[in-house]
Every structure is written in structure tokens, then in C-alpha cells.
Amino acid sequence: MSSARELFIEQMGLFSQTEGAPRIAGQILGYLIVEGAPRTLTQMTQALKISKGSASTNARLLEQRGLVHRVSALGQRQDGFAAVDEPGLHTLSIMAERFRASADAIETIAVDFPDDEAAARGRVENLARFHRESAQFLDEWRARLCGRRKPAHNIYKEE
Amino acid sequence: MSSARELFIEQMGLFSQTEGAPRIAGQILGYLIVEGAPRTLTQMTQALKISKGSASTNARLLEQRGLVHRVSALGQRQDGFAAVDEPGLHTLSIMAERFRASADAIETIAVDFPDDEAAARGRVENLARFHRESAQFLDEWRARLCGRRKPAHNIYKEE
DNA sequence: CGGTACGTTCAATACAGACTGAACGAATTG
DNA sequence: CAATTCGTTCAGTCTGTATTGAACGTACCG
């Protein structure tokens, strides 16, 4: 039987997997959320039973996606990684960015449809419009959530 | 050099892949969108150069996800598959459902956190709340898009 | 009834990509 | 300056899964 923290970390790994990202990336994020304070790559390798290479690669992937930030610890040789305050907000950014990229790609293709396929072009343009509007809505909602967050209530106290 | 329709179909395959679904599923959806009218499995195998098994499996996957519907053609032995009017709306449903499932799973785990990890439990509950609200938001927005759709303007005329 | 065309299923294969472990450079330490 | 201790990178392996091709059951047809 596993502890709640282990279950949570494993669950986060599964989520990550279903979204096309590596399982370990989700596990690292879950680990950092539970810990609530910066942790080193070495700590990840021990807690998650993964290789140093995987820890480095996936931690950097999370950093690049804005879900994790690296703290250059004072007087510390090792890098510290910590989950950002609201990982969900960055998840929304990522989704919005994906929609926007899709919209761009589809629109670019749509203009090349010949005139005798005007109906098809219309359907493709319709799909592109949906993707673009989706991106915009996600951004707007993220902004709304951002504003709603109580500024004084910082969840990550320890650090 | 490829035609616009081929580029679009390939692009849809790539999108599908990045979202964890089979590439062929996206290609079929793209093909049906471009065609704008029901197509048979045999037509898919020829147009997309795929096996009959793949066509059957992936078409059924799309049907199950609500992105494609099967038309039992009159006096026709073969099944016809056609993309739904607004594939995007069903994409939103799928995303909302995923968020809801995540919220459920995370909440279930959260309650099992021991009291000496109350801070961690709070962070996990916070994540669950975000997922639940995301699901709700997506549903609301889908409903709004649904209402905005012009009823008379049916894109798929031929059939 | 054979014969054909269809959709589904499943074992076998192919393939993409996650993961590892070792090698490397850089920075620190004694 | 040797010896650690980092983080990164990369070739190689391994695992999951997409895809195939053939076999099967069914319905229609002549």
C-alpha cells in the first residue's frame, strides 16, 4: 500500500503521460508540489527512483514550460527546483499556445486551397477560427483567475 | 510537392499525435472535414494509404469520441462516416471531461493525506479545485459557442 | 446455396520515444 | 592541482503502442 503522497505523484505522472509528456515530468511536478519547497536533482533521483539524466532532462522541460522555476540557491552548489505558485495557470498558457499554433498552421494551409475546393476551404477556415478563438478564451480566463488569486495568501511559505 | 488538402490532412495527423491520439485518427478526421460528406472505410484506405484494420479501428475511435458520426446509408451496404458539424465543440467536451476526471482523482487522493502533511494537502486540494473549475469553464464556453452557431448555415450540404 | 463485399478483431511487427548509464565539461573544494 | 560534485548530453536499450495483414463472422447477392 502506498502513502497519499506517493499516490499523488504517480497520478501526476499518469496525467502527464495522457497529455503526451513524459511520465517522469509529471512525477517531478507532483513531487515538487507536495514538497512545497525547492528540491535538488539528487533528491528527485532518490525520491522517484529515476536516473540523474532523466531528472535533469525532465526538470528542464518543466522549467521551459513554466511549471517549475530554478532557484540559484545562495551558497549552494546544487540547483534547486520548485513548482510555481499556480501550476494550473501555466497549464492554461500552454494550452492556449497550442491552440494558437494550430490556428496559424491551419490558416496557412487554408489559403492554398484552389477555388474549385472553396467549400472545403471554408470548412478548414472554420476550424482555424475555432482554434484561434479557443486560444483567446483560454488567455482571458487565465487573466481572470490570475486576478482572483489572493496576493497575500502565498502557499509556499517554507523555501 | 503536396496539395493543400494533403497538407491539411497531414497536419491534422500531427495534431492528433501531439494530443496522445493515433496519427491516423487525426488524418481520418481531416479527410472527412475536407470531403464534407460521408466516406466509406474503403475510400479512407485508398485516400490515406492505410490498412483496412486501421481505418476501422480509428474511425470507430473518432465515432466514440463524438468527432465523427456513422450514417447508415439507405440502400448502401457500406457504412458512411462523416465529421460532425463542429468538431471543435466536441473537442471542448473531451477536454472538459479530462479535467473533471483529474479533479475527481486528485480530490480522492487529497483526503488521505495525514494531518502532519496538512500544507501539502492544501496544495493538492488547490490543484484539484483548479481542474474542477477548468472543466466547468470549458463547458460554459462550449454552451456559449453552441448558441452562437447560426442554425440555418449548414456547411455540409452535399451528403 | 456458393460467392462476394463488408466491418471487426487479433496476433505479429514496426516504430517512436522515454529512460538509462556512462562520458564529459565546469565549477568548487581541500 | 588533484579530487569531488555538480548539470548536461548522447548513444544505446527498452517498453508501449500504432499499424499492419490475415482470419473471422455476417449480410447481401446471383
Automatic annotation (TrEMBL), chains A, B:
Pfam families: MarR_2
SUPFAM superfamilies: Winged helix' DNA-binding domain (SSF46785)
Stretches assigned to coiled coil: none
Entry-linked InterPro entries: HTH-GbsR_regulator, HTH_MarR-typ, WH-like_DNA-bd_sf, WH_DNA-bd_sf
Domain HTH marR-type: from-to ranges: 22-73
Record's keyword terms, sorted: DNA-binding, Transcription, Transcription regulation
The name this protein goes by in its record: HTH marR-type domain-containing protein
Native source organism of the sequence: Sinisalibacter aestuarii
